[in-house]
Specification:
By secondary structure, this protein is α/β, with parallel strands linked by helices.
Length: 354
């Protein structure tokens, strides 16, 4: 603690990201839900073509090329799309734009742990709704009065998705409050709520290019919703940083969104590998939740999750362990390449044999 911090900073408990190995330390890194495959070659081409004297100039403050590409990919108008420096920033702006400390919003007790951090830091009141014992979402609880709803779909770290009919029910229960559906992992088997935007003015869908488009290093996130919601996000953005997304990120986003063949091939490879890994783990006695994401949530009745986590780390494999109530018996495992996941399975088998 520093004597220079203000009270809000002193009381803040920040989000803890997954471990990032030091330079030169080699791991099979399946702990932070990154895509194991490179981005589209067209992304490299677009970035190379943009590495010129125009970097001395500010980017388009509206990120127009990126927004237009996202709108085109999702059958939206450009005024229904907002772009920011990663979906985390987009979410933070949404919390600032639509929620307050008078009307508590609803979030899940087991979900993306950045949500309560935003609430506490941004002075947003909230209530946590427990997931069921099998980690599914009790949708009925989200039909109760509140100041808004935030749900990750598929949920993280559990990997479980809810259907569009459930999302419709939540939207209809909160006609005067914003419902945020965080779709960071939607491309790996879930059904996007974006088509519902035309019907529900209170829906804001947040997506990222970090996962399915392999651009975690570029930090590009989007929000989609009715123009009034987008205008609210713009008001927040332009209150502290008009240029949230840089020139290279804009052209990278456009190229990635336009290369649908590369995107589809990568997503399908990850889904296929995921199913192989799930089958292998189940044959070894693991419980695996139904995943619609690029990761799986696993447990074993005979072995302690933390022990498996530590063993894998000694073998050069990083997975994610959460030492938290209700999930301390589980590990979150990102789906890597076939080669990486074969090594992961091999080491798991060695651990069980020990």
């Amino acid at each position: 603690m520093s004597r220079f911090w203000n009270a809000k900073t002193t009381e803040t408990k920040p989000y803890t990201p997954g471990e990032q190995p030091s330079a030169g330390v080699k791991y099979i890194k399946i702990n932070t839900n990154e895509n194991p495959y490179p981005p589209s070659p067209k992304v490299y081409e677009a970035i190379n073509n943009s590495c010129n004297e125009e970097l001395r100039l500010y980017p388009n403050p509206e990120g127009l090329e990126a927004r237009t590409a996202f709108a085109s990919a999702n059958n939206l108008d450009v005024n229904q799309v907002f772009v920011g420096n990663g979906s985390d920033e987009v979410l933070a702006m949404a919390f600032m734009a639509f929620y307050d400390n008078l009307n508590p919003i609803m979030i899940l007790d087991i979900s993306y742990s950045f949500y309560p951090v935003y609430c506490k830091r941004l002075d947003v009141a909230y209530n946590t709704i427990p997931v069921n014992n099998d980690f599914t979402i009790n949708v009925d609880r989200f039909l109760e009065p509140s100041g808004g709803v935030v749900i990750a779909n598929p949920n993280a770290p559990t990997s479980i998705a809810i259907c569009l009919d459930d999302i419709k029910s939540i939207l209809e229960a909160h006609p005067n409050n914003v419902v945020i559906i965080d779709e960071a992992y939607i491309d790996f088997g879930g059904e996007s709520a974006i088509p519902l935007i035309a019907e529900y003015e209170n829906l804001l869908v947040v997506q990222t290019l970090s996962k399915s488009r392999s651009l975690a290093g570029m930090r590009i996130g989007f929000a989609a919703g009715n123009p009034q919601l987008i205008e609210g996000l713009d008001r927040v953005k332009n209150s502290f940083n008009s240029y949230t997304i840089d020139r290279l990120a804009i052209v990278a986003a456009k190229a990635a969104l336009e290369d649908t063949e590369h995107f589809t091939n990568n997503v399908n490879k990850i889904i296929k590998t995921r199913e192989y890994v799930v089958d292998e783990l189940k044959s070894l006695g693991f419980g695996v939740l139904d995943s619609k994401a690029n990761f799986i949530f696993i447990t074993h009745s005979k072995f302690v999750a933390k022990d498996i986590f530590m063993y894998l780390k000694t073998k050069g494999i990083l997975v994610r362990y959460f030492d938290l109530p209700r999930v301390s018996d589980y590990l979150r495992v990102t789906i890597g390449t076939d080669y990486e996941m074969c090594i992961f399975i091999e080491k798991i088998k060695k651990f069980i044999e020990v």
